[in-house]
From TrEMBL:
Role of this protein: Catalyzes the NAD-dependent dehydrogenation (oxidation) of a broad array of hydroxylated polyunsaturated fatty acids (mainly eicosanoids and docosanoids, including prostaglandins, lipoxins and resolvins), yielding their corresponding keto (oxo) metabolites. Decreases the levels of the pro-proliferative prostaglandins such as prostaglandin E2 (whose activity is increased in cancer because of an increase in the expression of cyclooxygenase 2) and generates oxo-fatty acid products that can profoundly influence cell function by abrogating pro-inflammatory cytokine expression.
Alphabetical list of InterPro entries matching this protein: NAD(P)-bd_dom_sf (IPR036291), Sc_DH/Rdtase_CS (IPR020904), SDR_fam (IPR002347)
Keyword Cell inner membrane part of the UniProt annotation: no
CC annotations in GO: cytoplasm
Molecular function, one GO term: 15-hydroxyprostaglandin dehydrogenase (NAD+) activity
Gene Ontology biological process terms from the UniProt entry: prostaglandin metabolic process
Source organism per UniProt: Austrofundulus limnaeus
Name assigned to this protein: 15-hydroxyprostaglandin dehydrogenase [NAD(+)]
Length: 260
């Protein structure tokens, strides 16, 4: 799918990975609606993007992804402004092992909530144009990251939901592809804040520095490139794309097909 002329919605767009995804989409000719709870950072990014890419290609909507009402309003505003939605990147996320319920709520429940609301606009079965949804999972959604069990659970959930929803979308003729991106460490505020966010598992976080050294640390634009690959390659549906500085590969899951 060409990104040129398409309308995209990116959550957690004010900073980090979401900001880089927003930038790569604009560079490739898309219009982008930035959703974030941080209004100051969102508005300031919008101003600099408008200077660089020209006004009329972006919109910032203050939106807490935990709120169904605010997500609905943000998607409605997108359709009113740009005439439809082709791409959604569910990217907003946190690490907070002390508030594990909030971690599950933002990282997993909000991805499911936003996907269902997005599909009301995007599905060909409800008058939409079809398109693509990319959910930001993590390497911690593929293997257990012992210093953050709730974060790990949320990201396993994102991978599982994305794969199942891709199958449902295909079977029901929605015309919407769904994929997950699973990065290792990425240089962002979230990564820098890991040591303070592990609550009862803080002592286990001591191995994080060694893991970072072993795996390397991605730049946000490395991750944005992976998003672009998933958008452009229409053969990718229900995939988890694992990304580290040394490797980018599609995860091979065990086949559990009862027909085989
Ligand atoms: N940085 C890393 O090492 C990795 C990050 N990830 C995932 O990437 C995603 C983005 O993370 P980063 O860019 O690193 O974090 P970040 O902290 O730099 O940016 C996250 C953005 O999400 C926004 N946000 C947080 N809660 C929100 C809410 N309730 N509603 C709307 N916006 C909200 C923040 O205001 C911020 O702008 C997350 O889902 C994270 O789990 C995945 C793998 C590695
Ligand atoms: C602590 C929150 C991390 C937030 C940012 C990320 O999502 C980074 C994810 C990066 C690496 C995840 C690695 C997971 C590795 C496991 O699959 C396992 O192979 C490593 C085992 C060692 C351990 O759990 O300590």
């Amino acid at each position: 799918m060409s990104v040129e002329g398409k309308t995209a919605v990116v959550s957690g767009a004010a900073m980090g990975i979401g900001k880089a995804v927003t930038e790569i989409l604009l560079e490739n000719g898309a219009k982008v609606v930035l959703l974030d709870i941080n209004e100051a950072a969102g508005q300031s990014l919008l101003e600099s993007l408008n200077k660089k890419h020209g006004a009329g290609k972006t919109l910032f909507v203050k939106c807490d992804v935990e709120s169904e009402e605010q997500i609905k309003a943000a998607f409605k505003k997108t359709v009113e402004t740009f005439g439809g939605i082709d791409i959604v990147c569910n990217n907003a996320g946190i690490v907070n092992e002390s508030r594990w319920d909030k971690t599950i709520s933002i990282n997993l429940m909000s991805v499911i909530r936003a996907t269902y609301i997005a599909l009301e606009h995007m599905s060909k079965q409800s008058g939409g144009r079809g398109g693509a949804i990319i959910n930001t999972a993590s390497m911690a959604g593929l293997g257990p990251f012992t210093c953050c069990p709730a974060y790990t659970a949320s990201k396993f959930g994102v991978v599982g939901f994305t794969r199942a929803m891709a199958g449902a979308s295909k079977a029901l003729g929605y015309g919407v592809r769904l994929n997950a991106v699973c990065p290792g460490f990425v240089q962002t505020d979230l990564m820098d804040q890991i040591p303070e966010q592990l609550g009862p598992y803080t002592v286990l976080g001591e191995s994080v520095e060694q893991m970072k050294e072993k795996l390397g640390v991605l730049s946000t634009s490395d991750v944005a490139e992976a998003f672009l690959e998933l958008l452009k390659d229409e053969t990718k549906d229900g995939q988890a794309l694992f990304v580290t500085p040394k490797k980018r590969s599609y995860v091979q899951f065990p086949s559990l097909d009862s027909k085989e």
